[in-house]
Amino acid sequence: MAKFATDEWAEQYAKALNENEEYRAAAGPKGFPPDGWEGDYIFVIEPSGNLDHKIEMWIGLYHGDCTGTKILKKEDKYQLIKSGEKAPEGVIGVEFIYSATYDNWEKILKKELDAVKALLKGQAKLQGDMAKVLKATKAAKEMVNTSANIDTQYW
User: Which of 78, 97, 73 is nearest to 88 (CA)?
Assistant: First the structure.
C-alpha cells in the first residue's frame, strides 16, 4: 500500500494510468482529436485534515500516455505555460495546475467528489485553459478512476 502523494504512489499512478485502456482511448488521438491530449499538470495538495504541509506533483501527459510523475522538492520550479510554449531552462513547464485541499483530494480519489464538479463548486481550482479541460472530461474521469484503483494509504 502506497501513501498518497509520495514518490511510491506517483510511480504506481503513472504505471496504472499507462495500463488503463479507457484513459488511452479518451486522451489519445481518437478520443481527443486531432492528435490526442497534450498538456502536463501540477497537482497541488494543500494542507488540511491530517496533512500539515503542501505537496506538489508533476504529471506528464501526451497523447494518451503518462510520460512520468514526480513529487516536487522545494528546489523544483515550475511555470504555467500555454500550449506550444517552452519554460525557461531548469523550470518545469505545465499547461495546468489543479489544486485542492488534502481533504478534497481524498474525496476525489475515493470518488466521493467529482473532480470537474469540484471546480464548478469552488472546492478545487484550475489554472490553465479551462475550455480544453472541459473537452476532455472523459479522460479526466479516467485519471480519477485510475487513482481510485491504487491501494492507497491516506495521511
Answer: 78
Domain ranges for the chain, please list them: 2-153
CA distance 60 to 19: 15
Q: Which CATH class is domain 2-153?
A: alpha beta
The reported pTM is 0.93
Helix (H) or strand (E) run with residue 46 in it: strand 41-46
pLDDT digit string, tens, across residues 107-121: 999 999 998 899 989
- Residue keyed to cell 511510491: 8
The CB density around residue 1, as the number of other CB atoms within 10 Å, is: 9
Q: For the sheet with 65-71, list strands across it.
A: 65-71, 55-62, 41-46, 96-101, 124-127
CA distance 126 to 20: 24
Report CA-CA distances (Å) from 113 to 50, 90, 104, 110, 149: 18, 35, 7, 8, 15
